[in-house]
Write a structure and sequence with these properties.
The complex is a heterodimer of chains A (134) and B (222). Chain A has 134 residues and is α/β, with parallel strands linked by helices. Chain A contains four helices and four strands; from the N terminus they run E-H-E-H-E-H-E-H. Chain A is globular, with a radius of gyration of 14 Å. Chain A starts with 9 loop residues before the first strand and ends with a helix. Classes of the chains: A alpha/beta (134), B alpha/beta (222).
Chain lengths: 134, 222
């Protein structure tokens, strides 16, 4: 990944239970960033499949995030635990082709800290910016 | 069900290294059930191979297909119109499927993406266990449907070895003692008298020693 962080194509898969207004909130950032950011709302993060993550990378995402509810707070009880296993499998697969496993990242939101999906995405993007500058 | 596991990608890459056009073919039966060679696994492997080729500047075209079964001609025939357009077929079937496709298309290289492992059962989501060796001389009727050839580490036919502890096998404590299961189930179904029968050593000639086995049934033939 030679691009500067500001030029990265980002895909964010997220549990829509995290933000009841995600449909409106994510569009704000989508308008701002254009095609460089793609949001994929899921009914639960447990709906994710390793194939979704692989296809996102293949379609040109430099970084793919999978955002889940806090541990123990999944609306469907165990969805976020399953999400963790699915991303781990995809990470091992991309490692086999010498891609950095961090291109796929699991983000487990903190309990008690409720952010809208655009706020959360901005946090992730600024963290990437700091990482790139460091 | 026949179970299998994907080969390491490095090994797969080596087999298709000289090819530019690869047909990746899955099988929708046993290997799909054990999450090794179905449509989804074809997608995962193809994605990985395409990304790898792109990263290394290699020109590689991959098409994904999944047949309902790769071991039956009527399904293999679906490849007839497309197979000539590819340098190689990467098959995600069991060993039988790979060979069946190669038999039908002898001029096209067919290589396996999976290691075929055993005849097994889906115990729970993501867990498959071996419970049949395909020995050709099934004795499950005497053993309360627990195969001592496969599930007893020592393959004992005439009673337990005596080494089990708290119902677990002394060879592998993760596995229940097959003979404990046999006796409990026979007891539960009132058939303990079956244990009086002494079984001679297995006739392994029905499994091996005479080359590949075959089953031929006139009533099923065209």
């Amino acid at each position: 990944m030679d691009k500067k962080s500001g030029d990265l194509n980002i895909a964010i898969f997220f549990c829509r239970q995290l933000d009841p207004d995600q449909d409106v909130n994510r569009r704000t950032l989508e308008k701002e960033m254009g095609e460089r950011i793609r949001f994929f709302p899921l009914p639960c993060s447990g709906r994710i499949d390793s194939l979704h993550l692989m296809r996102a990378l293949e379609a040109g995402a430099d970084k793919v995030y999978l955002v889940t509810c806090p541990e123990g707070a999944c609306h469907y009880r165990e969805g976020n635990l399953r999400a963790k296993k699915r991303i781990a499998y995809a990470q091992s697969l991309i490692q086999e082709i010498s891609l950095d496993r961090d291109r796929l990242e699991l983000v487990v939101t903190a309990p008690g800290k409720r952010l809208t999906i655009d706020e959360l995405a901005r946090e992730l993007l600024s963290r990437d910016d700091k990482g790139a500058k460091a | 069900m026949i179970t299998a596991e994907r080969k390491p990608i490095a090994e797969i890459k080596e087999m298709i290294a000289a090819c530019k056009k690869v047909l990746v073919v899955g099988c929708g039966s046993c290997v799909a059930e054990c999450a090794a060679g179905g449509e989804k696994e074809v997608g995962l492997l193809s994605s990985a191979l395409r990304m790898d080729a792109k990263a290394s500047g290699k020109d590689l075209e991959i098409r994904e297909m999944t047949l309902d079964r790769q071991c039956v001609y009527e399904f293999i025939d679906q490849l007839t119109d497309v197979i000539d357009q590819y340098d190689i077929v990467l098959s995600l079937a069991c060993g039988a499927g790979v060979q069946a496709v190669a038999e039908v298309f002898p001029k096209v290289p067919i290589v396996p993406a999976l290691n075929t492992t055993f005849l097994g059962e889906t115990k729970e989501a993501g867990l498959w266990i071996e419970n049949c060796r395909g020995c050709g001389d099934c004795k499950l009727g005497f053993f309360a449907a627990v195969c001592p050839v496969t599930r007893c580490a020592k393959g004992l036919f005439n009673g337990p070895c005596g080494g089990s502890r708290t119902d677990r096998c002394e060879v592998d404590p993760d596995v229940p003692c097959a003979w404990q299961l046999i006796i409990s189930r026979l007891e539960a179904t009132g058939r303990l008298d079956l244990l009086r029968k002494v079984h001679p050593p297995a006739d392994w000639s029905k499994q091996q020693g005479k080359g590949p086995r075959k089953i031929s049934r006139e009533d099923q033939r065209a």
